[in-house]
């Protein structure tokens, strides 16, 4: 379950990096990049929270 928790963190960081890079590259008018990185960050948070709860339940 710890690997799933790490996957959630990876999704959060990748989404944030893509969002920051899209700003500096001028992709701010591309809704697919902006929405995709936002969705990746939200899914990452959800995965991280649920995996953390499952780890606490198993201990």
Indicate the proportion of strand residues.
under 5%
Give the % helix: over 70%
Structural class: mainly alpha
Instruction: Tell me the total number of β-strands.
Output: 0
Unreliable residue stretches: none
Following the backbone from N to C, one meets helices and strands in this order, namely: HH
Q: What integer is the average pLDDT?
A: 90
Question: What general outline do the C-alpha atoms trace?
Answer: elongated
Radius of gyration equals 14 Å
Q: N- to C-terminal separation? A: 12 Å
Tell me the number of helical segments per DSSP (H or I, 4 or more residues long). Answer: 2
Commentary on this structure:
This protein has 59 residues and is an all-alpha fold. The chain has helices spanning 2-25, 31-58. The model has no long low-confidence stretch (mean pLDDT 90).
Topology diagram in text:
Blueprint: H1 2-25, H2 31-58
Question: What is this structure, in a nutshell?
Answer:
With 59 residues, the protein is an all-alpha fold. Helices cover 88% and strands 0% of the residues. It has helices at residues 2-25, 31-58.
């Amino acid at each position: 379950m710890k690997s799933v928790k790490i996957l959630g963190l990876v999704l959060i960081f990748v989404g944030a990096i893509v969002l920051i890079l899209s700003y500096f590259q001028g992709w701010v008018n591309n809704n697919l990049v902006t929405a995709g990185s936002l969705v990746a960050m939200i899914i990452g948070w959800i995965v991280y929270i649920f995996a953390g709860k499952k780890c606490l339940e198993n201990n």
